[in-house]
UniProtKB/TrEMBL annotation, chain A:
<dbReference type="Pfam" id="PF00528">
    <property type="entry name" value="BPD_transp_1"/>
</dbReference>
<dbReference type="InterPro" id="IPR005769">
    <property type="entry name" value="PhnE/PtxC"/>
</dbReference>
<feature type="transmembrane region" description="Helical">
    <location>
        <begin position="12"/>
        <end position="30"/>
    </location>
</feature>
<keyword id="KW-0813">Transport</keyword>
<keyword id="KW-1133">Transmembrane helix</keyword>
<feature type="transmembrane region" description="Helical">
    <location>
        <begin position="74"/>
        <end position="95"/>
    </location>
</feature>
<feature type="transmembrane region" description="Helical">
    <location>
        <begin position="233"/>
        <end position="252"/>
    </location>
</feature>
<dbReference type="InterPro" id="IPR035906">
    <property type="entry name" value="MetI-like_sf"/>
</dbReference>
<dbReference type="GO" id="GO:0015416">
    <property type="term" value="F:ABC-type phosphonate transporter activity"/>
</dbReference>
TrEMBL record, chain B:
<keyword id="KW-0472">Membrane</keyword>
<keyword id="KW-0813">Transport</keyword>
<feature type="transmembrane region" description="Helical">
    <location>
        <begin position="198"/>
        <end position="220"/>
    </location>
</feature>
<feature type="transmembrane region" description="Helical">
    <location>
        <begin position="88"/>
        <end position="118"/>
    </location>
</feature>
<dbReference type="GO" id="GO:0005886">
    <property type="term" value="C:plasma membrane"/>
</dbReference>
<feature type="domain" description="ABC transmembrane type-1">
    <location>
        <begin position="92"/>
        <end position="276"/>
    </location>
</feature>
<comment type="similarity">
    <text>Belongs to the binding-protein-dependent transport system permease family.</text>
</comment>
<dbReference type="InterPro" id="IPR035906">
    <property type="entry name" value="MetI-like_sf"/>
</dbReference>
<keyword id="KW-1133">Transmembrane helix</keyword>
Length: 261, 290
């Protein structure tokens, strides 16, 4: 790199940093975020957490009820992910360049995916809550719609990546569409897809907490109840069980991923 | 013959044998087995899930027709009734602002932690400790962080940004430290040979060669943080367009306004997605999983 180019790149970096600082300052103004307050809050908040968020003896009695709700949440996210994966597989096959039937279906599949992915899960859960009411199905459907969009995009990418030459080879032998998909596309992209499904289950358990707070289902609702009744020891216990559940599921799926990828 | 036997010899070692020394004649392998089991387990758990669900107050048929009608009202007749266009833009600005603040501050903190987490720039025990802490932080959902901070700091942008920071840092530390670990070890060796200290290695060796990656990862996180900011507005009272969405659907039951807000969020989200897809294709053509 010569001197001139180096100076230019340094100049660009400087301008870039100034723009970022400007944008940050602007966002701080608009959100009324005070940096000094923010920094001052941190030690205060942390010391509050260490002082109050302890699991006491009596809160352990609530454990069975909490675990029941956690169970519901985990099942909700697994069911939402698995069912979304089945439909995403079809949408992915429609949307991918190598396996699409025609351009209209391909566009349609991509459009459905983009629509369900980019409308946030919050909006879906609020919309569904109005008519489905406060039960597990609302949370399930909200997670399902968001997962559908995300997995379709991921599946389209995995199918595009994996199967070009095998598909061509099978086409040359005169294989039917179903044969091509069954023997070439799915075997090649299955490990990648499974890895995405596992990733989505992990993500969904965390989102399920959020959806639960909004729709009054599962562990999110339990958290919200204790939070609003200022029972911070129970809040700590709920948080603790969620952390354990998420870590266990992460460990299991890392194990599976190590074998299949 | 000699050649043939010689060629066949090393293959013997690849034959799978059971513990007793017999040749394993079962079809399939471990990968296939694990794949099959994973799919089977997921299917069983999914079916079980529908028996565990709590269906209180559900009238499925009515709910579906109502939702269809609601969706039609939302998406075909979006209007604003409780606030003006100017207010709408301001609220969107707040949400985007929260996302930017959490991303920028998170990126700065994550940069330093990533130096500690990268195996080629730090000691093994430090890098391991940072990774364990990050894994723990990731396990607590963002909304819980925000709500917990809201107790101590009061509702407002401080609690929201601090709560969102945790996950941004966790995500970016992982991404940044992986980029650092991919730096050509030759560069670091050459700098070490000239006697440069750790700080020189970072500023002149590691940062210049990873700068574009760091920026792309930061932008990818911003895309996520926008969605998170909407969610925090709705669930944790952090303000912005998410809070308006919550009010419109939960308090006013104004589906047309919900439709308008959803469109506003959709437009920004799609714009961010297009930009980040371009970044991904340009800088990370291979896998881009988090």
């Amino acid at each position: 790199m010569n001197e001139k180019a180096m100076r230019k790149s340094r100049w660009i970096t400087t301008v870039f940093l100034i723009i970022i600082i400007g944008i940050t300052y602007l966002s701080a103004m608009i959100t009324k975020f005070n940096f000094i307050d923010g920094i001052a809050t941190l030690p205060k908040a942390l010391s509050w957490i260490f002082a109050n968020l302890w699991i006491t003896q009596e809160t352990w009695e609530r454990l069975p009820a909490i675990l029941g709700k956690l169970n519901e949440t985990i099942f909700m996210s697994i069911a939402a992910t698995t069912l979304a994966a089945i439909i995403s597989l079809f949408l992915g096959l429609m949307g991918s360049k190598t396996t699409k039937v025609n351009n209209v279906f391909s566009m349609l599949a991509r459009l459905i995916a983009s629509f369900s992915r980019n409308i946030p899960v919050v909006a879906w859960s609020l919309i569904l809550l109005i008519s489905f009411g406060q039960n597990s199905l609302t949370g399930f459907l909200a997670l399902f719609v968001g997962t559908l969009g995300f997995l379709t995009r991921a599946f389209i990418e995995s199918i595009d990546e994996a199967s070009q030459s095998a598909v061509e080879a099978l086409q040359a032998t005169g294989a039917t569409y179903a044969q091509i998909v069954n023997k070439a596309v799915i075997p090649q992209s299955l490990p990648q897809m499974l890895s995405w499904i596992l990733f989505m289950i992990e993500t969904n358990i965390r989102s399920a907490t959020l959806v639960g707070i909004l729709t009054g289902t599962g562990i999110g609702y339990t958290f919200d109840l204790y939070y609003k009744s200022l029972n911070y020891n129970a809040v700590a216990l709920v948080t603790f069980t969620i952390v354990i559940a998420v870590i266990i599921i992460e460990l299991i799926s890392n194990r599976i991923r190590k074998v299949i990828l | 013959m000699e050649i043939l036997r010689g060629g066949a010899q090393p293959k013997q070692t690849y034959i799978k044998r059971t513990r007793t020394g017999r040749i394993n004649i079962k079809a399939g392998n471990k990968v296939e087995l694990v794949t099959k089991w994973t799919i089977a387990m997921l299917s069983v758990l999914t079916i079980m899930a529908f028996f565990f669900f709590d269906y209180t107050g559900l009238q499925l048929e009515r709910a579906i027709t109502e939702t269809a009608y609601n969706l039609k009202t939302m998406f075909l007749e979006p209007t604003l009734s409780h606030f003006s266009w100017g207010e709408a833009f301001y609220q969107i600005g707040i949400t985007v602002g929260l996302g930017i603040l959490a991303t920028v501050i998170g990126a700065i903190i994550a940069l330093f932690l990533a130096f500690l987490a990268a195996e080629n720039l730090s000691k093994p025990w430090i890098s391991k400790t940072v990774r364990v802490v990050v894994a723990f932080i990731r396990a607590v959902p963002t909304v819980l962080w925000v709500l917990i901070f809201a107790i101590a700091a009061g509702l407002g942008s401080e609690a929201a940004v601090l709560g969102m920071l945790f996950h941004s840092i966790a995500y970016l530390v992982k991404a940044f430290s992986e980029s650092f670990e991919e730096v050509d070890p030759g560069i670091l060796d050459a700098m070490r040979a000239t006697g440069s200290n750790w700080w020189h290695m970072v500023t002149h060796g590691v940062l210049p060669s990873t700068f574009t990656y760091l920026l792309s990862w930061t932008f990818l996180r911003f895309e996520i943080n926008f969605g998170v900011a909407v969610a925090m507005g709705a669930a944790a009272g952090a303000g912005g367009i998410g809070f308006e969405l919550f009010m419109a659907s939960g308090f006013y039951f104004d589906l047309r306004e919900v439709g308008f807000i959803t469109y506003a969020i959709l437009i920004i989200a799609i714009f961010l997605e297009i930009v980040s897809t371009q970044l991904k294709n340009r800088y990370f053509p291979a896998a881009t999983k988090n």
